[in-house]
Amino acid sequence: MDSSTSTPSRIVIASRESRLAMWQAVHVQGRLAAQFPQSQVEILGMTTQGDQILDKPLAAIGGKGLFIKELEVAMQEGRADLAVHSLKDVPMVMPEGFVLSAISARETPFDAFVSNKYAALDDLPAGAVIGTSSLRRESVLRARYPQLVIKSLRGNLDTRLRKLDAGEYDAIILAAAGLIRLGLKERIRSLLTPEQSLPAPGQGALGIETPADRPETAALVAVLNDPETAHCVRAERALSRALGGSCQVPLGGYAIFDNGQLWLRGFVATADGKQMVSAEVRGAPQDDEALGLQLADMLRAQGADAILAQLAHASAGQ
Ligand SMILES: NCc1[nH]cc(CCC(=O)O)c1CC(=O)O
């Protein structure tokens, strides 16, 4: 792309190659192609380090950045113009030289209960084996359902469902958005309410990343931005950032619009679920990031710092 005044002849989207990532890239491709009929919109698929290391929990391999690094290199080298991500997987502090220039309207943000035997979390008997590798989901399960056995579950969506179907688990918890995007909505037996389990910051939204030195690309992808979702996820991400959020921290953050106000709820917990602090805040949507910081302070006042210090200590010992 060469100019901000004319539409580029070619727009290249960098994407991971998992089925979910590709669905998301194709979705954005379709929307850009409809907006810019003169442009040829292409997808550059690539495998990231995060996709290759499948046998360790995300928290142990260095976290979210591993899934986006290769895509950023492609943009730096001019092989791609933008990258499409599940926003949940985008680091809270953007890597130097890159910006989030659009946030798409959110798909169902909640966690989904998936099982071939049971209809809902509350139906699981004591000793039932439930699969998740998210520290956030684990802390909530241990706090509210201490009678369940939690077993690690990694891999892409298809792999996780295959492990469930092979009988390795009685039930698994996945983001509803991924299942819906892949046409697997019928696998969802029930949704976890925000009261049961607050979603991860950004869950269900797509983030469009572009190089900071290419404002013309940012202007182009602005057509994909949903302002309401953008306010919500800015508040959620500010909360997470203020608490040092990464997938090493069991933390939930979820904002919605309520009577014209932004309503942000959040929690921080220890992975064993023994300590958990939660709070909520309401305010003007344009104060999104300030609300996130305010909520972080409220959680700190309730003892979030002690929880975070304990987490730092635990991971240093790994
Ligand atoms: N952590 C992996 C991941 N990243 C995005 C989604 C689903 C789509 C979304 O949340 O937008 C998932 C799967 C899951 O958590 O079950």
TrEMBL record:
Listed cofactors: dipyrromethane
Residues recorded as bearing S-(dipyrrolylmethanemethyl)cysteine in the entry: C247
Cofactor binding description: Binds 1 dipyrromethane group covalently.
Domain Porphobilinogen deaminase C-terminal, first and last residues per copy: 231-300
Pathway: Porphyrin-containing compound metabolism; protoporphyrin-IX biosynthesis; coproporphyrinogen-III from 5-aminolevulinate: step 2/4
Catalyzed reactions per annotation: 4 porphobilinogen + H2O = hydroxymethylbilane + 4 NH4(+)
EC numbers: 2.5.1.61
GO molecular function terms attached to this record: hydroxymethylbilane synthase activity
GO cellular component labels: cytoplasm
Gene Ontology terms: biological process: protoporphyrinogen IX biosynthetic process
Source organism superkingdom: Bacteria
Sorted UniProt keywords: Porphyrin biosynthesis, Transferase
Domain Porphobilinogen deaminase N-terminal: 11-217
InterPro entries: HemC, Porphobilin_deaminase_cofac_BS, Porphobilin_deaminase_N, Porphobilinogen_deaminase_C, Porphobilinogen_deaminase_C_sf
Note: The porphobilinogen subunits are added to the dipyrromethane group.
Family designation: Belongs to the HMBS family.
Classification via PANTHER family: PORPHOBILINOGEN DEAMINASE
Function description: Tetrapolymerization of the monopyrrole PBG into the hydroxymethylbilane pre-uroporphyrinogen in several discrete steps.
Quaternary organization: Monomer.
Protein name in the entry: Porphobilinogen deaminase
